[in-house]
Amino acid sequence: MVALSRVLISGLDSPNFVIGNYLWLPIGAAILSYLLFGFKVFPGVLLGYLIAEVLIEGSVADISQRELLSRTMSSFAPIMAISIMRLFSLSNFFDDKKIYIGHIFFLVLLSAVISTLLKTFLVYDKAEKFLADPVGHIGSYLVGDMIGGIVFIYIGIKLSNLIFKRIK
Fold first, then answer.
1. Residue bearing the bigger pLDDT, 26 or 66
2. What is the pTM of this model?
């Protein structure tokens, strides 16, 4: 899910890494993966990001250290968000075979904030391009993660409802 969603949105990427993709679907794929299968799928989520980057860039040699760190942060942020929500007893995402969409949307927003902050302060903080416009960077990454995550999860829930209705 992560690799496919990343490849699908590659046409929306800016050549300047300071401006994030405004429809970052992979964060939704990562969140959905963790909700469905648990944190044990972290290696698969990270691998999905990296495979997509290889397909987009053309080879392993074309992937920068910055991209590797950024994709690691993108893979790790939803785990942190879910853990925080569980620590403070903020959510049961599923209960009695019902999906609490409001809780999942809050998870997307929290994941977006954590992902953006991790990338901002651990990956891009020393880059010259970033230092020229840090507010634009943070804003575009935050908005892209929020919109992309919500869109992916909404579509995923709607598709799964259609599939399960047909199976019954």
1. 26
2. 0.87
